[in-house]
Amino acid sequence: MSETILIVDDEKSLLKALRITLEGKYGVITTETGSNAIKLFQHKGPDLVLLDIGLPDMSGIVTLKEIKEKDPDAMVIMVTAVEDVKTIVEAVKLGAYDYLVKPINSQELFLTVKNAIESRQLKNQIRLLQQADIDRYKFEIIGRSPEIKKMIKVAKKVSKSVDTPVLIVGESGTGKGVLARAIHYSAGKNPGPFITVNCGAIAKDLVESELFGYEQGAFTGAHADGKKGRFEESAGGTIFLDEIGVMPFSAQAKLLRVLEDRVFYRVGGTEEIEVSSRIIAATNIDPEKAVEDGLFRKDLFYRLNVVKIEVPPLSEREDDILLLVEHFMDYYNVKFGKGFTKISPEARAILLQYHWPGNVRELKNLLERIILLEDGDTILPGQLALISNVDEKRNKVIGPGVTDACLDYEKVTGDLIKKALKRTRGNVREAAEVLNMPVHKLRYRIKKFGL
Ligand SMILES: Nc1ncnc2c1ncn2[C@@H]1O[C@H](COP(=O)(O)OP(=O)(O)OP(=O)(O)O)[C@@H](O)[C@H]1O
Ligand SMILES: [Mg+2]
Predict the structure, then answer these.
(1) 222 vs 180, higher pLDDT
(2) What is the pLDDT of residues 94-130, one digit of tens each?
(3) Ligand 1 pocket list (CB less than 6 A)
(4) Which domains does the chain have, with CATH numbers?
(5) Where are the alpha helices (DSSP H) in 139-283?
(6) Given ligand 1 and candidates 178, 315, 321, which is best to mutate, with the most ligand atoms within 8 Å of its CB?
(7) Candidates 166, 174, 198, 309: which one to mutate for ligand 1, based on the most atoms within 8 Å of Cβ?
(8) Among candidates 381, 443, 343, which has minimal Cα distance to 431?
(9) What average pLDDT does the structure give for the chain?
(10) How many angstroms does the Cα of residue 443 sit away from the middle of ligand 2?
């Protein structure tokens, strides 16, 4: 695709001449006023603007200022009738890339335009590389459990095939978003944009325009110049359909058609647009059950379910818990200027024993709170009160009516403790280790159960 140049000049004959000169090589849009130029700049996103300094409605300098406010990286070449040094200096200070003096010599025009476009491409490349580096750092998957290793292996394989849809399933906070990004960024040096759509958060009537965009005047309230949808924005990259399980049923049919045909139309549009993005969908509800309950279209499920990756709950990947704790400890140490380096053995036991209903997100939040609020270098059991009291709390919350379950629970725990004590010949400390339970908790239970 060739670059697009927006030419702004009120001199009709010059506008025509410039258009004819540049049209073969570049896409050209023209307008005669500053206010129109700003609108076109916003909605057409040209790669370069040729901007006359003397415009009828507002000066070229003011126009330049507004364009630069919308996009500080915008490439603008000023065009002037007189070599007015003061104005040109002002334009360059405001960020104009270069200037041309009328009458314009076509060779000089081509050279200046070519330089500007090359310089812009270079800037874009640098920015993309920097961004990819930041993102890669940000979306690293931490884990050494066999489950995570297996997951990463599958993710690496699917990342190689851009048109294979991926369905990620897992409880809230397990890292489905992290995995989706990892697949995207494993694809190669230039993975393109990563666009997230929160399917549950879009108003029912707007799903179509949000996903596929719309043309000028497609419906009341639509922006006058039309708008790109999320599919178009993700072109050449990834569209991440998060919470697909709660997408409105009517929208599911439209999405299915697009996935099958790999083309779509903007709302009110007639031009066929090809889907060129990788599609990753995620859900924290069991998709098979959602299909059974009639909430999720079966055909859409099969379409998305080419590669399904299940992210296991944190409680099922014990090997990752302490690794994640250390990871977030370092992260928040840097963020809050703290110096935590150790986890006491009792704290370790609590962290390992806890069932983590909020998964990695809960663990991350817990570490943020501790590192921010506490001082010292060691994470201690007292700082984990929120998660270590949960069992007792849960029993209290259940209350009367389920006494049988509580009794069972107490009986099983009592039996386990008895066995452990027998094995360690009454050594409480060793028994606590066997039970993966903090000593103070074991002492408390021994007393409570009268053992
Ligand atoms: N393996 C991991 N390594 C590092 N950080 C992780 C990992 N898993 C999750 N996280 C972090 O935990 C938080 C929750 O992860 P994420 O948003 O990906 O979960 P999710 O499964 O998409 O949850 P939800 O269903 O609620 O959207 C994020 O801050 C993420 O950075
Ligand atoms: Mg998520």
Answers:
(1) 180
(2) 999 999 998 899 899 999 999 999 988 888 777 776 6
(3) 141-143, 170, 172-178, 284, 360-361, 364
(4) 4-125 (3.40.50.2300), 146-312 (3.40.50.300), 315-388 (1.10.8.60), 391-448 (1.10.10)
(5) 146-159, 176-185, 207-212, 230-233, 249-261
(6) 178
(7) 174
(8) 443
(9) 86
(10) 40
Q: Which of 302, 211, 206, 287 is nearest to 245 (CA)?
A: 287
pLDDT tier, 326 (very low <50, low <70, confident <90, very high otherwise): very high
Q: pLDDT tens for residues 50-99?
A: 999 999 999 999 999 999 999 988 999 999 987 778 888 899 899 999 99
Q: Tell me the backbone φ, ψ of residue 166, rounded to 5 degrees.
A: -125, 135
Whether the CB-CB separation of 152 and 182 falls below 8 Å is answered with: yes
Q: Of the ranges 16-20, 76-80, 359-363, 440-444, which one carries the lowest mean pLDDT score?
A: 440-444
Q: Tell how far the Cα of 198 is from the centroid of ligand 2, in angstroms.
A: 9
Residue ID of nearest Cα to ligand 1 atom 15: 175
- Report whether pLDDT(404) > 60: no
Residue with tokens 């640098």: 126
Report residues near ion ligand 2: CB below 5 Å. Answer: 177
**H/E run at residue 394:** helix 390-398
- Looking at residue 133, its pLDDT comes to 55
Which ligand 1 atom lies nearest to the CA of residue 284?
25
- Ligand 1 atom nearest residue 175's Cα: 18
